[in-house]
Amino acid sequence: MTFEAPDIDYAGLSPVLALTVGVVLALVVGLFGSGRRQRIVVSIFGLGTLAAAAGLCIWQWGESKELIAGALRIDDLAIAATLVAIVSAAFCIPLSWREESVERPLGPTGHGEFQALLICSVLGMTLIAQAQNLIAFFVALELLSVPLYVLCGSATRREQSLESGLKYLIIGSLGSATLLYGLAFVYGASGSTDFDGVRAAVGGAVVDDPLLLIGIALAAAGLAFKLSVAPFHQWTPDVYQGAPTPVTAFMAVATKAAVFCVVVRFFDVALGPAVGDWQPALAALGAVSIVVGNAGALGQDSLKRLLGYSGVAQAGYMMVAVVAASEAGVSALVFYLAAYALMNLPAFAVITIRERETPFGDHIRAVDGLGRERPALAAALTISMLALAGLPGTVGFIGKLFLIEAAVDSDYTWLGVMIAIGTMISLAYYLRVVAAVWMRPAAERPAGGAMPAIAGGSQEADTAGKGVRCRVILGATLLAAAATVFFGVLPSPLVDWAARAGESIAALP
Amino acid sequence: MDITWYLVLSALLFAVGAGGVLVRRSPLVILLCLELMLNAGNLALVAFARSSGNEEGQVFALVVMVVAACEVVIGLGLIVAMFRRRLALDVDEMRELRG
């Protein structure tokens, strides 16, 4: 009996390996030292891991190969989604730096555990973006979700944070269980767990199999929970508001990037031949999401809830690209995911900074008069709001243009019209924030300086604007805001990048 | 092999679990119901594995068991953290975040 050495493609696996090592390193390094030193050392290792993973991804850019006996596949689409996740995690790390002893998550080893969980979630996103069979898909989805549940509940001193963690756990697990049941039926109908096997079976005789239809419906519902697509979105504003703001920023951007990537692979590729079965359903989900998200955001006074509802609407816009089921659709989706990261991260950064500077938490009063007080922050927030609303000159406009183009090309013109209508409604609440920033005087602060027990409500207000930490956060915020405008004026580099990712999906319906 | 009855049973389990998540108020019972939903998926996977004659479904079910255990650990951890803060362990009382 002879053994054959398995052929392991370490180059293709290198981003996954780097992140795995990073999780372990962050945990171990977090045990040494405490306070300031711990924060610095852990952050160096955490950011170093993310930088290494990003570098390895860029090195593998343009490759297209199967890994681990076909369970994973690294191609430009996977790498693009991974890069978006890595950038938002790298943005989240400086935001999570806090004054010692105040509001530190998770006790004395806080920073190590926080960043280990964060990198673990990025690892799950990397894997899900590469998943090529149902098992890898499900395990990677859990690997990205489970650390997020803990991160949401990580500010254990705040009731809201614990509550949002438990809510996210219950709703997320409900979504996972629904998805699993759907995947079981897809497996039952096709007799294979590989996406290729499912595609072959679906292309054959089982298109009208009731088992497959049940499977598609349940899987779509389960994924809609994860993507916060209406009508499965009720948890979104609550969890966004309760979770620590840096975690919210990461969760909003990175989860969407990774899960939309697998939605493309699962629906557009594996279930591609059954396109008639799922296309109307996803189109309806997208349309409902656009309406519900934009309508829900209108009356919100909490900025995080506002961005939560705005995220529901944006998920609806992105769903349109999946419905288009074409190369143009996938490219538009990748472009919009990158744009969404650039637009959303500065907004969350400004909210985090203001939560620490003012006693209003994430209430819209926290940004009143920001234009006079902190012009740089005000400019970043304004750019991000205008970009989310899709004004020309920002990356959000170009992104919506591509989405509408993809929808029209695939004979879903009415969805393109829905995007336009949704954008019009959304101006009402995005401009409200801009008006508060520039047109209102700074809100009166209650005397005594008693900070309420809200997110980030620490004594850091005294040192606002000073220190390395604040400068790093401010620099990253302004960089992202500048990129939002830059790619809005000169979109071609980002467009080429997204087009390459779209081309890597060969088999579309 | 006819797997109809296994599927009927798994559908019942799934419905009982989903109903429990929706109506029960204690987070502990909700976690139990989530387990029930995942196990309904497992039963369906194993049944389908028998009918289609390959073992992939059984492998999937084994993996799901591990994942389910992880979820419960996190859930119990959060519940313990809430209990230590003397928060009401009743999901209807969790109105700190309106919604």
CATH architecture descriptor text of chain B:
Orthogonal Bundle
The fraction of residues in strands of chain B falls at: under 5%
Alpha carbon gap, first and last residue of chain A? 44 Å
Q: What would CATH call the class of chain B? A: Mainly Alpha
Please give the most extensive interface between any two protein chains, plus how many residues each contributes.
A-B, 42 and 44 residues
Percent in helix of chain B: over 70%
Q: What percentage of the residues of chain A does DSSP assign to strands (E)?
A: under 5%
Domain count of chain A, please report it. Answer: 1
Residue runs with pLDDT of under 50 for 5 or more positions of chain B:
none
Count of individual domains of chain B: 1
Tell me the radius of gyration of chain A: 22 Å
SSE pattern of chain A: HHEEHHHHHHHHHHHHHHHHH
Pairing-aware structural class of the strands and helices of chain A?
A: mainly alpha
Average of the residue pLDDT scores of chain A: 85
Helix count, DSSP H or I runs of 4 or more residues of chain B: 3
Provide the spatial order of strands within the biggest beta sheet of chain A. 1-2
Cα(first) to Cα(last) distance of chain B is 48 Å
Q: Helicity level of chain A, as a percent range? A: over 70%
List the keywords.
heterodimer, A: 509 residues, mainly alpha, two-stranded antiparallel ribbon, 19 helices, B: 99 residues, Helix Hairpins, 76% helix
Please specify the SSE layout and strand pairing.
The complex is a heterodimer of chains A (509) and B (99).
Chain A (H helix, E strand, L loop, with lengths): L9 H20 L5 H25 L5 E3 L4 E3 L1 H21 L13 H21 L3 H19 L6 H32 L4 H9 L6 H18 L7 H8 L2 H26 L4 H23 L5 H22 L2 H31 L12 H4 L1 H15 L5 H15 L3 H27 L27 H23 L2 H12 L6
Antiparallel strand pairs in A: 1-2
Helix pairs in contact in A: 1-2, 1-4, 2-3, 2-4, 3-4, 3-10, 3-13, 3-19, 4-5, 4-10, 5-6, 5-10, 6-7, 6-8, 6-9, 7-10, 8-11, 9-10, 9-12, 10-12, 10-13, 11-12, 11-17, 12-13, 12-16, 12-17, 13-15, 13-16, 13-18, 13-19, 15-17, 15-18, 16-17, 16-18
Chain B lengths: L3 H20 L3 H26 L3 H29 L15
Helix pairs in contact in B: 1-2, 2-3
